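pls ignore typos typing on phone
NDP + seq
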Amino acid sequence: MAEFDYDLFVIGAGSGGVRASRVSAAHGAKVAVAEEYRVGGTCVIRGCVPKKLLVYGAHFAEDLMDARRFGWNVPECDFDWAALRDNVLAEVTRIEGAYTNTLESHKVDIVHDRATVAGPHEVTLASGKTVTARYILVATGAWPAIPQCPGAEHGITSNEVFHLDALPKRVVVAGAGYIANEFAGIFHGLGSHVTVVNRSDRILRGYDTQISDRLLQISMAKGINFVFNATFEKIEKQADGSLLVFMNDREPLPADCLLFATGRLPNTAGLGLENAGVELDESGAVKVDEDNRSSCDSIFAVGDVTNRVQLTPVAIREGQAFADTVFGNKPHRVDYGCIPSAVFSHPPLAGVGMTETQARQKLGSVKIYTSDFRAMKNVLANRNERALYKMVVDADTNRVVGIHMIGPDAPEILQAAAIAVKAGLTKQAFDDTIALHPSMAEELVLLK
Ligand code: NDP
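k done
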């Protein structure tokens, strides 16, 4: 008789959990993964994937306008929200199926049930069944945080936004981070009137200020409204189903949809982690060491539930490192340096390495190179929207320590540039590279 039912029991089939399950099974472990909702987790089901498809959908608003300047006879076009929504949801279902197939082909048992931790080696399923495992991996992700105020239940979050019955005419987006800016661009592009409301006086804290300021300026020029230093007082539902959003010192704002995009908190509530002595931090995140091990020796955690870096590719790396270390006899750790990230706003922005402010604080002496230009396509389209590329260089070593950009396809361009920053290349290495002309990316090797 085996000592445990499984070598590994994973709670949560999102990006981190699926990678850890599949790779552990490939290393020979007997694995089960429990998922209370749908295989794929936030990224596939209600995050990166459907969001990016909506971003593409919204961008056609500008593309169809611009096409006329390129000689196309474009008739008046209508937009059909239900068609886009249903096609996106069908694609999500297809990817969910692909994830399920991968798990099944690796002989991972998928348990469609909520699992809670009953002890260091024990999990209880909602059905009442108890399962034992040598190791438990918590990969339950994060959940939208909603600021408390009367009537907050009338708002929705990114969990519900992909399922709206109709495109709302007036949207209030609470928050000014990733989700807020991405959905402001989506709703605006699709034809809604959008107001972004934030508690502070800036957007996208953490990104280089010059780049986020440029997004603010472009978004305002497009017609997106911004309200800063605002606190929600109450949300009232009106007889016609619309909402009135009350804030401090301002007239109430009418809306047909209020989207909360005010951060995401680790999903540990009711998970039973206290039954195994797993310590949490003040945000509710599982505290882990560099090998993803919690304060209980047999319980590990990866991804958003650890609140290190809330990004899919990081969760995947953590899941891989866990599996290789615990079951593959190939111990390694995730390197958290120089993680590139992007916001799929309209236009998108992306960054890697230190911002100018961070570099000045850390290195003291830095050199900044920028290119502020209008993409060729925008010039012909009569679109007065300027891209901005910025390179942050350590003045002592000439090493490029950060690249930040906003403009068409910025995330596509930054991914390649991030390799150079991660590899520690110097500004000279960029200068020595011949430009690929005509492209936007060539600005990176022409910075003066
Ligand atoms: P962010 O952390 O990006 O932004 C949260 C926003 O809400 C900020 O503007 C913040 O204000 C504000 N806020 C935070 N708490 C409160 C509060 N209690 N009351 C009012 N306002 C508040 O969170 P998101 O929800 O946009 O996204 C969650 C995470 O998901 C991101 O951090 C990111 O890691 C990930 N994500 C990544 C994407 C990508 O890679 N493209 C896309 C979407 C999400 P301020 O900071 O101004 O004080």
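The longest strand covers residues 130-138. The two ends are 70 Å apart (CA to CA). more later
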